[in-house]
Amino acid sequence: MAQKITRVSLTLPEDLLNKLDRSLKAQGYTSRSEAVRDAVRDFLASYKWRQELKGELIGVMVLVYEHDVRGLTDALIDIQHSSRGIMSTVQHVHLDAKNCLETSVVRGPAAEIRKLVDRLGALRGVKQAKLVTIER
Questions:
Q1: Pick from 11, 67, 91, 104: CA 20 to 30 A from residue 58's CA?
Q2: Is residue 67 within 8 Å of 73, Cβ to Cβ?
Q3: pLDDT at 1
Q4: Do β-strands 56-66 and 87-94 pair in parallel, antiparallel, or remain unpaired?
């Protein structure tokens, strides 16, 4: 039996849509919908992986964000200060006139690190929030 398909609409900045279309053509996708389904699957797999992390972790969190989004830098700084028990260092890089990259070394209980990554990734203006962990 075929799976039910539900139509949704997305709002994207024009430059992001143009990049998506060029990428789709280069990769041989036949539709935007299939690419978006793949992206959602990847997003969900990453979320599931973070949910399954247990115990004490050490790793690096990577954020890419638009620094000119109102209130974002203040929110980031507030979260960083309140997370000083698990976030030991932050390195800030200006990627271009609009975007910044931050790497943070994190160490502590998996549940706290997971909560931190989820919280930062959900902020308006954060384009990417990734966590890389290492085995000790």
A1: 67
A2: yes
A3: 66
A4: unpaired
